[in-house]
């Protein structure tokens, strides 16, 4: 570069820096400006030899990110400084975290550390490491939500300046943005940034579609402006008459949301009816906000007929992102639907700035919605039970989920994600209540635990001390919190069965003159083709390894001389991880969806799943269902782009699957017979009674019982115990 160029560039850098101070949303004190200046000087020095792919000086990137943080997100000087420094430690070995802490204090250093950890996550990763990286990133939410916010600003600037990259790189970064960063921005209440990220994501994943919609919006801009002008003219006079101070803005919906509508409703661009929204932003003190919002509502509906099912009142009960507004859809001139959003200036700031505005207005008001969400999330984040892909999927569900509002029996309002069940409600109150849930009443009527709650329902949870979560609960629960608690409870239960199984095994082996020690355990794990010693104990505990099988093992052992000779010829089996603290499942067939149907499928060649892998089904156009591993290289793009074609799938395990069986009984009726029968059934562990019917005809007794058992051995044991009851003559499995 010539000296002239360098001078030009330096002038541009200085100009960018001045602009940063000018556009800041927070008022900056002298100390703030000093802090930002210091951060700027360190960043300039650290990046002095770096250039971006486009050829410009690297320092423009941190300044741009800091500008987004200052202007669009509206964070304070600490965050502006951290944004300027976000790549310093990573890109320049001369600067360490200790240096940053010494110069800028603990908070800035912690945020920079969080950002450095995130960006040092491996970039060229397969999906499972990618998911693991996402998990690590999301865990920084606990330490400091600002880390994620600056990361979102960093991602936005990268998306805005991606033109000079290779197209495969662009597509990867854009898919990732749509997959995790846009939903995160949405959840933190940064709606404007969410829209930008989605539009840019679409621009690089489906460029033709993006440009087509973009051009059509441009073409119809004049006509749209004229329409909004005509629409607002009608209500302006009435608003002025009431002496309100307001501002009316019309804005087109984002390209991405128009595309989503086109796909969802199966219509063309011209048929999407609400391509724009009109916003009425009014001035008001805090006390009169609600009153004025409804006053404006009544003025708008005096002139235009509202669509009664499209009224959204987020003023009385704000969204959990903190968003407040009144949305109505009215029939405007020329028979077109128009969405009208009514917000006070405070609400508008919260809608646009999210996190930062919350804190500006927080003094004196109740606890902040974002804080509550992060607290709730913390629990889900802390239980590392699930694998990373599941975790990210589960986390994503909690980001975009629409909300419903339900009432407790005392009338308290609780917000839950759409699709939540009474079980989710129980766990959202308290883990203990969730664990002891026996049933639920919705609006006074008993409902199954899988019942989908609707906004406005009043939910009462019935609990019982002797209830424990069972594996069906995972089909009923949708929230991350409930699912992680249920999973860990089921795991503990299996471990209890394994402890019991170990004692049973010790007794049974004693009768067979075998000592239970490390050697015999290893031999049995090999003999029964299992993976861990805990598997062995668990299967003995639930009865899927029974006496005849143990006798077979003993006799195979007594032919020791033969097996010694054989083992010399044959290589001995080496078991890995026999003492692993887990119960693996013996998988044998694939089932799909919540109903666990057995359907025809093909295993995909890109990742070759084998029984036992975590998998999902993908509905292809020509080849039916193809099964992919959850960490298949193509999984992320399939899940990001074709979520509607994904089917849940899992390998089921004969020892952990439950089967229904029917038993008929007959005999001579006597007093207390029914009581004895139910006692026997309930005292048989791992047997669940589904339905029962008895009749007595002239002293002859007959009955039918439907039970759910884990395996054949349990059923036999139950039938033997029933036969012992006085008066029972026959016990037959149907």
From TrEMBL:
SUPFAM superfamilies listed in its UniProt record: ACT-like, HD-domain/PDEase-like, Nucleotidyltransferase, TGS-like
Signal sequence region: none
Residue stretches in coiled coil: none
PROSITE patterns the record matches: TGS
Domain TGS intervals: 402-463
GO CC terms: plasma membrane
Recorded GO MF terms: hydrolase activity
A Pfam family hit: ACT_4
Gene3D superfamilies, per database record: 3.10.20.30, 3.30.70.260, Beta Polymerase, domain 2, Hypothetical protein af1432
Biological processes per GO annotation: guanosine tetraphosphate metabolic process
Keywords, in A-Z order: Hydrolase
Protein function: In eubacteria ppGpp (guanosine 3'-diphosphate 5'-diphosphate) is a mediator of the stringent response that coordinates a variety of cellular activities in response to changes in nutritional abundance.
Family from the record: Belongs to the relA/spoT family.
UniProt protein name: Bifunctional (P)ppGpp synthetase/guanosine-3',5'-bis(Diphosphate) 3'-pyrophosphohydrolase
